[in-house]
Design goal:
single chain; 230 residues; mainly alpha; Proton glutamate symport protein
């Protein structure tokens, strides 16, 4: 019941107001003369994160291919419909039917696919994790905030726990993470606003990485429990 309340608030209150919030952020940056510099950095960050997402998916499917003795690139190609659906919906939950259908095409049994895919849509947010960590690191470098390795490692570990609670709706991950970003990294309200703007600008890439990676997990689980079920 509490999950439904949080999801409703994010979908009907926070998400509709975000464009206005982000618009105000960029108006303020334009007034202070920072917008060109920050936008140039944002574009570079987006490019780097996209490359890292591709590498992450290749690693995930390579490991799954080794376990299941299948061609990782063939499996990755079969997951492309789920990837592009996630780009459009920006929601792991909304992409579940497509992800489920593509996972079955890879060769995952129905009972494993029906269990793994909905579960991963909730708890597997590797793409979002990668994006949040990169954005935080970039903003800390831009703002000249001192980076302490131990502190940042603790932040990443806590973020992994927080992501389990992230609702499968557009912007859900950053809303779940913004509290620990402020408390553990010391981000000011202005930096938190920039973080939200940067995340929302490329939310679809993180979601696409999440749901596509679900296929690799489902294949691995299918192989591990193959003998036990048979």
């Amino acid at each position: 019941d509490f999950e439904e309340i949080i999801t409703y608030l994010i979908q009907h209150l926070i998400i509709p107001l975000l464009p206005i919030f982000i618009f105000g952020i960029f108006l303020n940056m334009s007034y202070s003369g920072q917008v060109v510099t920050i936008m140039n950095v944002f574009l570079k960050i987006i490019g780097i994160i996209f490359i890292l997402h591709v590498l992450l998916l290749v690693i995930q499917f390579t490991l799954a291919g080794i376990v299941a003795k299948k061609n990782p690139f063939v499996m990755l190609k079969l997951m492309l419909p789920a990837y592009f659906t996630a780009l459009g919906t920006q929601s792991s939950a909304a992409t579940i039917p497509v992800t489920l259908a593509q996972v079955k095409k890879i060769g995952v049994r129905d009972e494993i696919a029906s269990f793994a895919v909905p579960l991963c849509a909730t708890i597997h947010l590797s793409g979002s994790m990668l994006k949040i960590v990169c954005c935080c690191l970039a903003l800390m470098l831009i703002q000249g905030i001192e980076i302490d390795f131990i502190q940042f490692l603790g932040f990443m570990l806590m973020l992994g726990i927080a992501m389990v609670a992230a609702p499968g709706v557009p912007g859900g991950a950053i809303m779940a993470a913004i509290g620990i970003i402020a408390s553990m990294l010391g981000f000011s309200p202005e930096n938190q606003a920039l973080m939200i703007a940067l995340y929302i600008a490329m939310d679809s890439f993180g979601t696409a990485g999440n749901v596509t990676g679900d296929g690799a997990i489902a294949v691995t689980v299918n192989q591990i429990f193959k003998k036990k079920i048979i």
